[in-house]
Here is the input.
Amino acid sequence: MRQPAPAIFGLSALALVAASSVACGPTEIPDKRRALLESWGEDVLLPLYRDFEARTAELDDAAETLCQSLNAADLGLARDAWWAARAPWKQAEVFGFGPYSEEPVRLGPKIDFWPVRADAIDALLASDAVIDDALVATLGATQTGMPVIEVLLYAHGDDADWLAADPRRCAYLTGLTADLRVHATEIRAAWDPEAGAYLNHLTEAGRQDDAFSTLQMALAEMVGRMAFTVENIRNDRLGRPVGLTSGGTPQPAKAESQSSGRSIEDIRDALRGVALLFDGGDAPGAQGLDGYLIERERPFTKRMATALAAAHAALDAIPGPLTEAVDSAPESVIAAIAALGDLQRLIQVDIANALSVTVGFNDNDGD
Amino acid sequence: MAAPQRLAARLAAPRDAAGLAAFRVLFGALMLAATLRFWAKGWVDTLYVEPAFHFTWAGFDWVRPWPGAWMEVHFALMALAALSLTLGYRTRVSAGAFWLFFTYAELIDKATYLNHYYLVSLLALLLAVLPSGAAYSLDARRRGGPRPVPLGAYALLRAQVAVVYVFAGLAKLDADWLLRAEPLHTWLQAHAHLPLLGPLLATPAAALAMSWAGALYDLTIAGFLLWRPSRPFAFAAAALFHVGIWLLFPVGMFSWVMLVCTTVFFDPDWPRRWFGAPEPPGASSQASPPRLPSLAIPLASAWLLIQLALPLRHLAYPGAVNWTEEGFRFAWRVMLTEKTGQAEFELRTADSPSPRLIFPQRDLTPLQAKMMSTQPDMIHDYAHFLAARARAEGQQDVRVYAHVTAALNGRPSQPLIDPRVDLAAQPRTLLGASPWILPLRQPQPSE
Here is the structure.
């Protein structure tokens, strides 16, 4: 006997309704991934960018003071202010997407384009252009930002004679610090839910958001960023200066923060940013990836601590400034690249596997 | 009458073309939607136009993206062919054209391989030879009405779909799937927040139950769909299964392709009975039997033998197929692996005193880098690309070593490729085993 069509329709409709109820019910349970993304935004990213905003304001004030006094003591204070502003900026590097890299704002290169182009700085100073805040605001990435400020503060001796010798230099310096202060506010505001609200792309993922159609994709983006931050250190910040990723010959001029000797500390700060996402930081109620993995019964606490400690130890073992170590002790730099490789693999392979966050670049996927 | 003649007569027996035509209409409409979706999401550019390097298939290295805007034209023609197939205009030509456009695109880059894309290619090719335009088509209208089709047309499609399900089920009969409930357990934990079922889905017991149910489903669904008394329940189960998968996992069009495929198991006149349409003159199974071409049975037999051999070829290779991926593709090994990897390469040449470390993300798109990091043949391809580029730059004695770490189904990560082997010196083979793939070690505790 043939089954009547309505029976097939009825059973199928029932099945479809049952399946649909899996995803469309009215009483959604709070998703721990969303809580994690919210915590990363509120407890890590925004505090870091607020701190950066405050420290760039202090740097701007210090530069103004220096250019009024033009003495070595105020140069030292301005250097301290620059150094201090680097810390939150580099720690926030793990959030180097969205307003950092995407047009129209694309603030990352405006704030931190490196390796610095000394010839671009010299060309501006040697030109006939009137250097003031208005001009600096129009300059491209090679002539603005923290690396250029670093050159003006660190590359010409420990007294302020070089700055004093030509008023254009101080005009350039104060124009740059004022410009940096503006950009620091812009990048904080771009993420801030009260202003540009880019953070909402992460925290509202899966709720009609066009950047991340699911929470899993937003989580994948952040885990991917953790891994990419480590790879970026290995490839660009260590590999290129030591020649491992750039043809074999050490190239100190490819180092980041070479005038100040902050290259390794920049790397440590970037790793601290990765660690903040993993453990959540010190803010009350802050959540980290570690806690989420433990809840999923896939703990990585010890392995992550071991890998981070090994990476920091390898960085500590690099003697002197990186620009010298790439020539005098390249094996120590290569050892650090290897230690950071273990950390990268732990995040990119093991943790990603435990979280199933390999999919997320696009949804041309399936089986 | 001898057995071959009896079989030929049975396969030539006339059947209502409505079921076959309905499959064509549903498949064509789905392909039209899929092509437009692919286009709308910008994947024509991101997958074919933007990559500077493509992972070509052995023997098909000549298949390259068209220059400039011609890939857009390619997809426009693909959509047109899908529309034409749906309407049944020059049905076989339309199906053949769709197959050509679709398969060409899929052959451009291994990174875009998906099992259901392979199935789409197979089904499109079958529609190019089967008489699916015999009803519900502009062709049938032009010819004055529907005509019956041979039972063999249904049999071939059913066998093809059954091969997919049965091999998908057989592939699940391993320890990861049946004993560790992986990768389902990992995947389902991401759905703990869902209402009603969420907390249950995240439990190991649910993953285990769903793993066993999934294997059982794949192994039996074709039979239950074929058997008339169980068919309504089987179709309801198929709807639940595929819609559930679509809701829970990022499988794109996979679920809908498989749901459309279930209709081939229905009685040939199912569209008329569902929609209450009368049987038009000439469509009846009592009409004069269509002639079966003399090569039909040998070709269909060869087709099915290939379909049986391809999923089994992994048995000819050493090691766990889910790890080595030798014989993994074209074998319906669906939803079996959660695999992550990280790959970097060491380039050595006579001109350079020290090795150069290369991160592939600098050359590849995120999708290509992700797919390559776990698939040995793509790692090998990329090593050859690096070697060729170095030689083109004038480097001598070029050697490439791969440092690749991967994790499969929650196991701790382990090396996938022997880092001591110069991959640039390893020949690219179509079927040969790759001794430089390291074997999968057994699970160990994470901490």
